[in-house]
Automatic annotation (TrEMBL):
Gene3D superfamilies: 3.40.50.11500. Residues 1-140 form the UDENN domain. Pfam families: SBF2. This is SET-binding factor 2. The gene is SBF2_3.
Length: 301
C-alpha cells in the first residue's frame, strides 16, 4: 500500500491514497509547468492570440528529450541557488568534512516551513550531492554555471517566453554535445560467432599474416585516431564559482536567518520533549537558554 508505481510505457503514475506528495514551492511549480508546456506543446502558448506571432521552428526529436532535461536542470539550479554560501568546510580531520547549514539555507530563502525542500535536504541524495559538489576546487560543469547565474537573469527569462525558449535550447544543445562528443566517429562491429561454431569438424585453417601489411594497417589506424579528437574531455579543475548570495525564493528582501534558526531550535526541543528523548532535550535546552540570554542582553544594550 505504500509503493508508488511509475508505468514508463503507459505514461502513468499510481499513487496510493495513504501517501502525501509534497509540491514544489511557488512560484517554481507554476514556472516549471509553464516551461514544460512551452517545450512539449509550443502551440498552446499562442493558441488564444487573435494575431499569433510567427511560429518558431519545432524542436528536433533528438533534442526534445534534452530540452525536458534542461527544464529540470534549471529547476534544481533555482532551487539550490546560493547553497554554497551555506557550506562549511572543516579541515581538522585527515580528510576535509563538509557540513551544510540547512536551517540557514531554508531561513534565508523563506522556506523554513516548506515540506518539499525540507524532505529533499534531509534525503541521502542531497547528502551525496554535498559531499560530491561541496569541495571548492574541482571540475565544474553546466550545473555549476547555472547555480552561479544572477537571480535577476532567471526572472528576465521567465518574463519573456522567447528568451526562455532560447536558453532552454542552448542548454539542450550543450547536453547533447556532452553525450555525443564525436558524432562522426564510427566503430566497427564484430559479429558474435553462432552457437556450436566451436564444435565444427572441418575448420578452415587460419591464414598466415603478413608482417608488413599488419604494420602498415596499424600505422594507418594510429594516424587516423591521432587526428580524431578524444571522445572524453579531460577534467580541468578550477575554483567553483560561489554565485550570488542566498535570496528568497518568494521574492522577499532581507534575511530572517537568525529568527528562523532560533525557531528551528525551539521546534526541535519541543519535538524531543513530546518524544520522551531526555538526552537530546537536555542538549538542545542549553541552546534555547543561551538564545534567551543573548536576546535579553541584546535588548538591554
Amino acid at each position: 500500500p505504500d509503493v508508488i508505481i511509475a508505468d514508463l510505457d503507459g505514461g502513468t503514475i499510481k499513487i496510493p491514497e495513504c501517501i502525501h506528495l509534497s509540491l514544489l514551492p511557488e512560484p517554481l511549480l507554476h514556472q516549471t509547468q509553464s516551461t514544460l508546456s512551452l517545450v512539449l506543446h509550443p502551440d498552446l502558448e499562442i493558441a488564444d492570440n487573435a494575431f499569433p506571432p510567427p511560429r518558431t521552428a519545432p524542436s528536433n526529436l533528438k533534442l526534445l528529450d534534452k530540452e525536458v532535461r534542461a527544464v529540470f536542470l534549471r529547476l534544481f539550479a533555482q532551487l539550490f541557488q546560493g547553497y554554497r554560501s551555506c557550506l562549511q568546510l572543516i579541515r581538522i580531520h585527515s580528510e576535509p568534512v563538509i557540513h551544510f547549514h540547512k536551517t540557514a539555507f531554508l531561513g534565508q530563502r523563506g522556506l523554513i516551513e516548506n515540506d518539499f525542500l525540507t524532505k529533499v535536504l534531509d534525503g541521502m541524495a542531497f547528502a551525496g550531492f554535498v559531499s560530491e559538489r561541496g569541495p571548492p576546487y574541482r571540475a565544474c560543469d553546466l550545473f555549476d554555471e547555472l547555480v552561479a547565474l544572477d537571480f535577476e537573469s532567471f526572472k528576465e527569462e521567465e518574463a519573456s517566453s522567447n528568451k526562455l525558449q532560447k536558453h532552454i535550447r542552448e542548454l539542450s544543445e550543450q547536453l547533447y554535445r556532452n553525450e555525443n562528443p564525436n558524432p562522426h566517429m564510427a566503430f566497427q562491429k564484430v559479429p558474435r560467432p553462432s552457437e556450436g561454431s566451436h564444435l565444427r569438424v572441418h575448420q578452415v585453417p587460419f591464414p598466415l599474416l603478413n608482417d608488413e601489411k599488419v604494420e602498415k594497417m596499424f600505422q594507418e589506424g594510429v594516424a587516423k585516431h591521432s587526428i580524431t579528437p578524444a571522445s572524453t574531455r579531460p577534467e580541468r579543475k578550477c575554483v567553483v564559482p560561489a554565485g550570488p548570495p542566498v535570496v528568497s525564493i518568494m521574492g522577499k528582501c532581507g534575511s530572517v536567518f537568525n529568527s528562523a534558526r532560533r525557531l528551528e531550535v525551539v521546534k526541535s526541543c519541543i519535538s524531543f520533549i513530546f518524544d520522551n528523548k531526555t538526552l537530546e532535550t537536555e542538549k538542545v535546552m542549553l541552546t534555547v537558554f543561551h538564545q534567551r540570554s543573548y536576546s535579553a542582553f541584546k535588548e538591554a544594550h
